[in-house]
């Protein structure tokens, strides 16, 4: 029985040691006051990464805005003169090629437009050639015609024919 009781009871030295460790881990009240005095400004808060509490608005997903002046700016990698020249030449070549492609597309478009105009003109000429023409010599007939018949009449220049 003694051995069973001994197993059930925790070792007293272990509990004392764990209590001492927890006391050592927790900062003292005076230490906390000292930290709060140090962290007065927002910049210092950001440096120490102290988490902010829940905002009053309830928008926990919103982050604290930072001033534009606080953003760290880098000058970037400096390129050598030869590399800069090569980049400029490449850019010029690319621009020239793009201009050539645009010019070619524009020319193709203009050629299509011109072809369409020529086709329309040819179609109109063919339509005129195929018309059946009846010359009205007696102008008194025109006065006797009804409105529907007058609408069908079209004037043409017969000197060419």
From TrEMBL:
It is found in: Chromosome; Nucleus, Nucleolus. Transmembrane segments: none annotated. Keywords: Chromosome, Citrullination, Coiled coil, Nucleus, Phosphoprotein, Ribosome biogenesis, rRNA processing. Residues 50-59 have a biased composition (Basic residues). One of its GO terms (biological process) is rRNA processing. The keyword DNA repair does not apply. One of its GO terms (cellular component) is nucleolus. InterPro entries: CCDC86, Cgr1-like. The keyword Coiled coil applies. Residues 37-49, 120-129 have a biased composition (Basic and acidic residues). Residues 12-21 have a biased composition (Polar residues). Residues 1-62, 98-129 are annotated as: Disordered. Its main location: nucleus. It comes from the Eukaryota. Belongs to the CGR1 family. Required for proper chromosome segregation during mitosis and error-free mitotic progression. This is Coiled-coil domain-containing protein 86. It comes from Harpegnathos saltator.
């Amino acid at each position: 029985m003694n051995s069973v009781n001994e197993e059930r009871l925790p070792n007293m030295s272990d509990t004392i040691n764990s209590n001492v460790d927890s006391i050592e881990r927790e900062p003292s009240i005076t230490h906390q006051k000292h930290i709060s005095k140090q962290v007065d400004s927002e910049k210092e808060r950001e440096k120490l990464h102290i988490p902010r509490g829940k905002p009053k608005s309830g928008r926990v997903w919103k982050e604290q805005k930072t001033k534009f002046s606080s953003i760290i700016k880098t000058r970037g990698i400096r390129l050598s003169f030869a590399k800069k020249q090569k980049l400029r030449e490449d850019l010029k070549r690319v621009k020239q090629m793009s201009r050539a492609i645009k010019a070619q597309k524009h020319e193709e478009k203009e050629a299509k437009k011109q072809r369409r105009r020529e086709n329309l003109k040819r179609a109109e000429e063919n339509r005129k050639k195929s018309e059946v023409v009846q010359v009205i010599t007696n102008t008194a007939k025109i006065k006797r015609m009804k409105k529907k018949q007058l609408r069908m009449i079209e004037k043409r220049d017969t000197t060419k024919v």
